[in-house]
Amino acid sequence: PKTATAKIAIVTGATSGFGDAIARRLVAEGWRIVATGRRQDRLDALVEALGGPAVVHPLCFDIRDEKATREALASLPDDFADISVLVNNAGLALGTKAAQDCDLDQWRTMIDTNVTGLVTITRLLLDRLIARRGLIVNLASVASNWPYPGGNVYGGTKAFVRQFSLGLRSDLSAQGVRVTSIEPGLAESEFTLVRTGGDKAAYDALYGGANPLQPEDIAETVRWVVSLPPHVNINAVEIMPVSQSWAPFKIHRE
Ligand code: NDP
Ligand code: 8X3
């Protein structure tokens, strides 16, 4: 029911990886979830696994599509409308090639999803989040902070997510709305299959022997951020597996 104590969070991209784990973790903490993604079968399975439609409300839409996003949010039943936590998780990387070899359509898809889609749903939910003195958790990346070969537009979109988070925080502090940028490194999910067009060998090579972060590690971070008292804002959290660290600068010589 819509009460002052209702704990309702929306998790975008809850059909896989981090979003799926975040939804599961928040439900375990007593939250009810609006779960989004494009794969209806995955959303249906999540609803079933987490206690049914009273606990999880699925919204199947493409976050790149403003009209679909507006319609999905407008369709929320009263008992899921009072959202106080927005987890902006839906996103993707496409391709690992050097910029000069990249496909422009893939670049646009990353920008449309990671930047435009994220900004759109954030703006559409902002009044509700302000009304609830809520919390926005954005999934940025180590790629927000550290360039790497082949990261080009993906890293650019994630740098946007981090800086947008900090800017939102500046604007919303007087409203009591908290904003956190979560910046994971190497983490095992469908991310690399999506990035490589389903290349299982690339997936195995990247994660093999690396003991990467797991989606549950990110879900635990979100749980922590969400559970803090309302006067505490975690601005940014950068998280890597222990196996991942930095390399020297490379120098190209003629
Ligand atoms: P997954 O590929 O496992 O999950 C991505 C999720 O995003 C899916 O639920 C997918 O749902 C959703 N999504 C993608 N495009 C759209 C779209 N157009 N409309 C709606 N939903 C969409 O990847 P991760 O869980 O690893 O990634 C989650 C977030 O974390 C991303 O923003 C990613 O950039 C970021 N990240 C990932 C890291 C990693 O190494 N794995 C590290 C740092 C950050 P569906 O396909 O059903 O639409
Ligand atoms: C995903 C992490 O290192 O592949 O954002 O860019 S990385």
From TrEMBL:
<dbReference type="GO" id="GO:0016616">
    <property type="term" value="F:oxidoreductase activity, acting on the CH-OH group of donors, NAD or NADP as acceptor"/>
</dbReference>
<dbReference type="InterPro" id="IPR036291">
    <property type="entry name" value="NAD(P)-bd_dom_sf"/>
</dbReference>
<keyword id="KW-0614">Plasmid</keyword>
<dbReference type="InterPro" id="IPR020904">
    <property type="entry name" value="Sc_DH/Rdtase_CS"/>
</dbReference>
<dbReference type="InterPro" id="IPR002347">
    <property type="entry name" value="SDR_fam"/>
</dbReference>
<protein>
    <submittedName>
        <fullName>NAD(P)-dependent oxidoreductase</fullName>
    </submittedName>
</protein>
<keyword id="KW-0560">Oxidoreductase</keyword>
<dbReference type="Pfam" id="PF00106">
    <property type="entry name" value="adh_short"/>
</dbReference>
<comment type="similarity">
    <text>Belongs to the short-chain dehydrogenases/reductases (SDR) family.</text>
</comment>
